Records
---
Amino acid sequence: MTSQTDPKLNAVVDAVRAIPAENFNAYGGGWPEEISTALLDAVFSMRAIYRSERPGVGVSGRLSTFRDAHSEAKNDLTLLHAVGEREIERIMGSTKSAQRLKSVVAIEAARRFVESGVVTANDFRSKDIAEMKKVYTSVRGLGWVTFEYFSMHLGVPGVKADTMIVRFVNRALEANGLQHVTPGEARSLVVEAHGQTGLGESLMHFDHAVWLSESDRA
């Protein structure tokens, strides 16, 4: 834990206070009742453009297409598995993680969750979060950062320490002559900055405000 007198925390808090106020109300709420959508979002958003005005580009638009085409599978991992990797690749694209097609990674994660008794969003929330993390990260190509993103989409408070969050934190530190930190340390600093400032309706609103600020800057 850092303290309120920690220069790293102070640097992040100062940077957060410079974020436009409207950013703290921009969080859309994730996919609390759509476990399959949440899973595809988490898997395909890794190192990807999330929103784009160009047709066929961006995770957000592809997710909308998937939800329209397979509405019955939105909150059913058994049905997502039945959709199959080829159809997911067709809609979501052929990007990779750990040299594996993300469509293959998503299908494997769906299967492992179903084998663990998790089919719907409510099933996920009823389980021990540490056990769910083990199931998710047992799939090659998936790690703790996107697990937190996945669980946040399902209503579990957290911070996704992805490229944008880490970049925001490290830019704030660099501006104050401080050394960069790891994703895990960046996550802790964001959580503590939220606690100190009280900005945003929830930690997830706060996380999204930071992400949006850095995304707009990029």
---
Amino acid sequence: MTSPDPSPAPARSNPRPGGLQRLIYASRQNLPDGAPLDEVVSDIIRASIRNNREQSITGLLLVHGGWFVQALEGPAAAVQERFERIAGDPRHADPKVLEIEPASGRAFGDWNMCARTLSDADEALLDELEQRQAFSPDRLDARSALRLLKAVRDIQGRAGFG
């Protein structure tokens, strides 16, 4: 795993230490040999719910095609600390910040953490979001990443998880 670039997407303004911040990143999955993806994601979600609740962090984790794409929202200092822990987690390779900026409200406030693994049936979602080529979140811009995660949020809400 390589270390994240500490300044790939600087905040557009310096949020107050306790101000609401949203950070979106993409990382490649780096799973232990033979580890079932579902079990790894379940472990991540269990720990995230517990840890994020303590820090008032909410978010959504998208799992697809060997990638993680995640939005974290909460107090700026807590979000930055959580991302640093994620970047150091060996299950995440080459984490890339796609967006980090103050947020006027929570887009993923229903969950301390929620995960969605896209299936083949969800490919239409990627087509709609102009991801017709191989799924490569590290090439997403901030607007497209947020749009993708909000679409997944809406799917989760319709499925009764919101």
---
Amino acid sequence: MLARSITSLGRRAVLAAGLLALTAGASLTIAADAQPQAGEMAPAISLPDQTGKTVNLADYKGKWVVVYFYPKDQTPGCTTQACEFRDNIFEFRNAGAQILGISVDDVASHKAFAEMHGLPFPLLADSTKATATRYGVLTKMGDNAIASRQTFLVDPAGKIVKHYNVGRDDLVGHSKLVLSDIATFKAKN
């Protein structure tokens, strides 16, 4: 009986801490699949892009793929990150790499975001949140579930070679870091 009461109190404390974090504007990770690790095959992706065309990760077999998850179209941090990838697009193309941006926003939102900022790569709409869940990046922010800002570098064989947990302070320079890592991994092979 005592152990049961302690367990019940423990659950209440966890719930109270979670509610306190949410009311303070913090994010809370939602139970999701474990994040894929370096050396594992990247989970399948099949989502519509900003034009409504279905894009599959498998379509890029033989190329390096940068799969970056971001919280929301048209927000300052997400715009900074997307525009950095845009500004380095020719370097990514020269490296044989494809960029895929993913958020839980819908196709129309992605279309407006891509057009407003001239984004020359697919923005994939994960409106069911299934892909963000498979990659273990789904996060609760207030009343909404969003993708946390994380990047997975996938090699030409479809394996994840690096995972980046991108903080707000890491936005500027993130795309250059990914380019540098691609060059390093290519030199090792």
